[in-house]
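Good day; I would like, with your permission, to put a structural problem before you. A protein sequence and the structure tokens that stand for its backbone fold form the material at issue. Thank you for your consideration; the sequence and its tokens are set out here:
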Amino acid sequence: MNPALAVKRRFLLMAGCYVALWLGAWYSAQLLESWGSVSLWYLPAGLRFSALLLLGWPGLLLEIGTILTFVLLQFGTSDTPWPGLLTKDMLWRLFDLFAFVIAYAAVVFPLRWRLGGQLDLTRPQHSGLFLGAALAASVLGAVAGTFHRIGSNIISAAPWTEVLGTWFIGDFIGIVTLAPWLLVCIWPRLNHYLRHGRWTRSHPSTAAANAMNRRSDQQTTLVSALALLPVFVIPISLQMNQHFGLIALLLLLPLAAVALRHRLRGAVLAVMLLDGGLTLIIALSNQRDM
């Protein structure tokens, strides 16, 4: 097979997986919103940020294609008629679809240029730039979303600060939780697959490193699960006060232990698992209290 054609086929396969993950993350966010926990966990923001940072302009096209797929899916499953062309409602609809990816690109593309496409989270300067970009993208996304809600009369102008804060928190946590995991744990293998058609190199030393990473991931997953159990599940099952936020600080202890033992890879995986487990536990608790 032509190597260029093979690369295109692998990219299309990756794009299909990205669309599926994005849709799954969006519907998961809607489910958590119905349980009162949307501000803790908005993963589409992390996917969008990562695609733009890792892929550049192809990532922008991938995100736009994902949005159009989402629109077609909504159009095919909804009984509500779409607004006519060149109407105010249609303009607000288009703004809602594309304002976020434009806002993210305005932040991520300069960061990508500044880093030369090479982000190393073990370097303090790169970590600072990453956090600054995540903060800026979250603010711009929150402003765009709040402006759309007010302009299209979905909400009144009075509670705009609350909407802005909730939106910002959801996007920021979604980015800083998911994007580092994708950058550190997934992207090296995915990039090698896109280039060579294999997830890992065949070099013996690399195989040993992969085996070590698998053991590290297994140990990190086990530690995270055991940490969530006594900190949240047991107090909730005993009908203790699950809204006592300071109890979450106890999760810093196993997180610090994982970071010391398993370095950056273990730390980002532990953060994702602990944040996801925390969100799920709180959401289930909120649903039970309804």
Q: What stands out?
A: The radius of gyration is 21 Å. The first helix runs from residue 3 to 34. The chain has eight helices and no strands. The helical segments are 3-34, 43-55, 57-77, 88-115, 124-151, 160-196, 204-237, 252-289.
